[in-house]
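User: Continuing from earlier, I have the next pair ready.

Assistant: Great, send them over.

User: Here they are, in order.

Assistant: Folding the first of the pair now:
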Amino acid sequence: MDSDTTALINAAKCTALLCIDVSLPGGRIQRHFGTAFFIDEKHLITAGHNTSIKEIKDHPKKIQITYPGLTYVNYTQLTKRKISTIDCTLVASFYSKQGPPEKDIALLHAGSYNSADYVQLSSDLPNVSGNGPAQVDVIGYPGEHKSEWMQTQNVADVDQSLGAVAILLPKRTLTVTHGSVKTVDKIIGYDLSTCPGMSGSCVLYNGKVIGKSTSNSKLKIYRSAYWTT
């Protein structure tokens, strides 16, 4: 097994489906999905906007994750509590709708659960000056593929594209997507296929999870590269 494969497997073992249930008037539950990953035994990182949706801020919410590393999460079994989940609390969110994209980060605590697997964050930045673009991998749980979202992707045929996305990024299935990095105005981004639900996924470069930039770096990491949208 090569080092890249080993790194992907290790990151997958640390990745969980994030489920946030919001209690609305009349006993209704609004459910939001995302991805989170363990950075130590107790803490996970996800996208800040996952925990900062307006409905979440204005009403009581319950934050849960599935056990990390599940290949597939069945929606019906999840809602009927036939899949084990872990209750989490929001430690901090640095997200602001008007704030810089690199602050779109939230930190979760997994309560009494201790994760045997977690990733270590690296300050190694992708090499953007070498021959050819650097390659990165993203691991997460794609969500629902909706026509409204697909229309924002500038595709010629929404229905045909939805079918392709369903094959490429199967919903609630732990998925790896591969692409290349790019820089725009000294901000590191990437060209790869993602969809709603993968917000909060870790980004791997050379088998390491990009987590923070060094103080002397002239490049900022796009959305801190902890996660992807």
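And the other member of the pair:
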Amino acid sequence: MHGDAPEGTGPGAPGRRPRRARSVLFIITALAGLAVVGVLTVAVAGADSRKDVPRKPAAARPFTLAQLGRPGATVSLAGFAGKPVIVNFFASWCAPCKKETPLLAGFYAAHHGQVLVIGVDSNDQSAAALTFVRAEHVSYPVGVDAFPASTATSYGVLGLPQTFFLNARHQIVRHVVGDVTARELAAWAAQLG
């Protein structure tokens, strides 16, 4: 057997394949993560051609999420039964969200009691999200929609931010892709009364 590799060092040696498999798995996972970030970036970049998606009223998907910054508490769409509500999907790492969130926080504070808002922090680090919402003085409830972001997925949200306007029967009557504007929020408040 001269010319053979020393025992335990050849291509089929124990420990060699599992390490290679772990490396391949790591590379595949990293590439999948980059693909997700790429899709989100492209979707958000498309916000320059923002869309206000007209739609026939359709039932909003119910959800219950852990409430950001309040251990043991939850945010549930059912908790707002019989009331119109704005559901805003965002993340602390999202550039357009950094412009939109202070606008929503100010709008909510100015119309508290008349206009209800639920924030859904999607695919984010909880510590970063909590720092972000505190810095922007967000006082409406924020649910944590951690990876794989099943609530965002159930709403068809691929890029951030996105905002859904729900009537009192929790039907989606308006859907804004990209950051919502002060004009859109004012029109919603006027519509409510």
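Worth noting for the second one:
The chain has one domain: 51-192. The two ends are 89 Å apart (CA to CA).
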